[in-house]
Amino acid sequence: MTASNSAQESAIKIRDLRVDYGEFVAVNDISLEVPYGEVFGMVGPNGAGKTSTFKVLATLMEPTYGEVSLAGIDIMEHTEDAREILGYMPDLAPVPSDLKLWEFLAFHADTHRLGNRRQRLERVDECLEIVNLTEKRSAWCKHLSRGQTQRLVLAKTLLHQPKVLILDEPASGLDPLSRREMRHALQNLARSGATVLVSSHILSELAEMCSTMCIMNQGRILGSGTAEDLRRTLGRTERALTAVVLENAEALREWLNGRDGVGEIRADGKRVIFGYSGDDASQARLLTELATAGLGLKSFKEEESSFEEILVQVAEGNREP
Question: Phi first, then psi: what are they for 79, rounded to 5°?
Fold first, then answer.
């Protein structure tokens, strides 16, 4: 069976996927589709069900039930076909200490039967270039930093040019420079037509790396879309607004007190910070009235929910699917 890449077909399709460990439900009837050429992130606290989902997608675990296809291939019915177009990178994958980078990659190129020896070594060099490790080609694996090791494992995952990549916490523990290099490598892969599914427990990290993502907790998907979509749907229900006046913050506090939609009010020097539960139109009217109230309004700002705040709410169970 060959994989199809039709415009109507998603690269990854999950339908009603469930994974049980005895009485514990790790993945609870999730459904998801990821288009071709996309870096899609799955984020959630530890124990959310991300790794169990990834192990099913990587054909390393049979689910309790559900349907999964990769590039049009049913992974339950045609497991070996799925593995040919799949690249899987587990969290903290080990590398041997007694091999050089090119030797490590050449060994795996041999296992994939990638043409003759010359072609395999050419592919090794191509993958080293993709992850920006060309200068380390003849270095020993044991001398790599954490970020370089992660990028080497990514290079190994790319050797057979998979159509779908499943990467579990690939940026875990990386410094900012290594995260940036990893992000650029994955985005370039997506531009070349590959589909990348990547997990993390750090939402801000995926927001930079991924075009779209979903948030998972307690085995369920709570929301999906762009980073801003998730901020809107899973952020705080009450907006935090800040008004700065030229002089008298107390007068502004009194003006706001008791108005519809205005919650807790806190004055800090010339700033007044307050919660607001009204809709966009109501907020616009409030700002118009405030600007003409003679209170010396200097600036007005709406504070968005931080990604960290959203993840804390999710981890504490304050958001339901």
Answer: -60, -45
CA distances from 233 to 66, 171, 178, 236, 314 (A): 27, 26, 31, 9, 12
Asked if residue 86 lies in contact with residue 56, where contact means CB atoms within 8 angstroms, the answer is no
Rounded CA-CA distance 27/281 in Å is: 40
pTM of the full structure:
0.74
Which of the listed residues 234, 249, 265 is the one where a domain comes to its end? Answer: 234
CA distances in angstroms from 84 to 13, 193, 219, 304, listed in the order given: 17, 16, 28, 43
Distance CA 252, CA 36 (A): 52
Burial of 40 (0-12, 13-18, 19+ CB in 10 A): buried
Domain count, the chain: 2
In a domain, residue 160? The reply is: yes
The reply to whether 250 and 212 lie within a common domain is no
Helix, strand, coil shares of the chain, percent, nearest 5, are 35, 30, 35
Q: Helices (H), strands (E): how many in the chain?
A: 11, 14
**Any domain includes 54:** yes
Residue-wise pLDDT tens digits, 60-116:
999 999 999 999 999 999 999 999 999 999 887 889 999 999 999 999 999 999 989
Q: Residue 234's CB: how many other CB atoms inside 10 A?
A: 22
- Contact residues for 11 (Cβ-Cβ < 8 A; gap 6+): 34, 35, 36, 37, 38, 70, 71, 163, 164, 195
Query: pLDDT tens for residues 3-31?
Result: 444 444 799 999 999 999 999 999 999 99
Do residues 151 and 118 both lie within one domain? yes
Residue 92 CB neighbour total at 10 angstroms: 12
- Phi/psi of residue 232, nearest 5 degrees: -70, -45
Q: Which domain holds residue 129?
A: 12-234
